[in-house]
Amino acid sequence: MFRRMFPDITRTLHELYLSDSRPWLVGFSGGKDSTLVAQLIFEAVLSLPVEQRNKRVDVLCTDTRVEIPAIVETIEGTLARMQRCADEHKLDLHVHLLRPPPEQSFWVNIIGRGYPPPNRFFRWCTQRMKIDPVNVFVARQLGRTGEAILHLGARRAESATRAQTLAGHELRNGLRKHPDLPRVVVSNPIEHLTTEEVWAGLLQNPPPWGGTHRELYKLYANAGGGECPIQIDTSTPSCGSSRFGCWTCTVVERDKASEGLLASGDERMEHLLAFRETLLEFQDPDNGQRDTRRMNGVEGDGPLLMKGRRELLRRLLRLQQETGLQLIADEELLLIQKHWKTARDPDDGRGVARIINDLRGIPMNDVRETARLRELEEEVTSEKKLSAATLQRLVETVENYSESHHATGLPGELMRILKDDVREPIKI
Q1: What are the residues whose beta carbons fall under 8 Å from the beta carbon of 375, sequence distance 6 or more?
Q2: CB 114 within 8 A of CB 309
Q3: pLDDT tens-digit readout, 359-368
Q4: Which domains does the chain have, with CATH numbers?
């Protein structure tokens, strides 16, 4: 049992559990370190008398929607077994697979808004896809309970950067202040363990939720990768050159985990790695896929051009057919179309449908309706001396703001669109 192998950690967890009523949050990424923390907490709570098991525990895992498929499959199975175990033992423990909302998904940001694929200088993905879903959940919980303790699997032995980060935060009874959530304190139960001790604890002690950790060990062996930890603030560095994470990651030079899984026989990774190269190609401003003006109109490396966004969507949908994986949801496609209608070079509102129909061999409909709409646009644009593209962007932008029931920022957004039309500041 864990409490014999790690008596100090178990004793500390017991004392912390019984010391107050603050609920516990457990960051779980599916890797070895977070798995060990989850198991230690399960074992500690299960070893308490039933009448003392009165603290709520929530296990939080983030799925960015572009995680490596083999990792997602392992995580989903583990979370399901955890919940069954908690239910069988009547623990007040609940697992949550958190995802970014469709509006903030990877594909909506890149193909819809035209964000360039992330790099180490513009790593927009971490905040939107990893940190924000956790913060939203935590904020919702704090609305009911006021405070919480978050358990993470960070270890000093992981890297010099991680050791410096852990050493730099204020300590109080083994707890640290959360950098962004003032009513959350962070616990790192295994911060002083070595990698060898982590694996020894896992391989010598089967998890209370059933099975063994052999599958996890095999996954590491096949991938040759490390754990991409659950992230709670932007000061945490990227996952590095050897990690489990997003198969789309263009922050690292090589995705060694994906390459390792391909070498071990996961043929899906061949197609995914090829698409990652496509993302790197579109990231490079020299390849002609990006605007020469930024979103604010200033000269510089800007968003992806509409031709690039259309081509990326075509390739992504082909990839989805080749792999049999659902890589993009219908709701994301609808949001992409909405963003295309307000882009600098907007389409007529049917661009996404045309691409889907072309790939599926389905003929287009509503030709007469589209033609009549264009006639009306030409009449209005001629009268107001605007381009048809600008009119489309103005109308769609107003509609988008109307759906959100507030107009904050609308005048500035409309002015930006008009400036794009005349290519010079408008005096009012």
Answers
A1: none
A2: yes
A3: 876 443 443 4
A4: 2-263 (3.40.50.620), 367-428 (no CATH)
Q: Contact, 252 vs 241, CB < 8 A?
A: yes
Pair 295, 303: CB distance under 8 Å: yes
Residue 386 confidence (pLDDT) above 80: no
**Contacts by residues 278-286 (CB-CB < 8 Å, ≥ 24 positions apart):** 278/312, 278/315, 279/110, 279/117, 279/248, 279/250, 279/312, 280/117, 280/250, 282/116, 282/117, 282/308, 282/312, 283/116, 283/117, 283/119, 283/250
Q: What is the pLDDT of residue 227?
A: 55
Overall pTM > 0.85: no
**What does the alpha-carbon distance between residue 418 and residue 250 come to, in Å, rounded to a whole number?**
34
* Pair type for strands 24-27 and 57-62: parallel
Using one digit for the tens of pLDDT, what is the confidence trace for 312-327? 999 999 999 999 999 9
Q: What residue has token string 């659950």?
A: 230
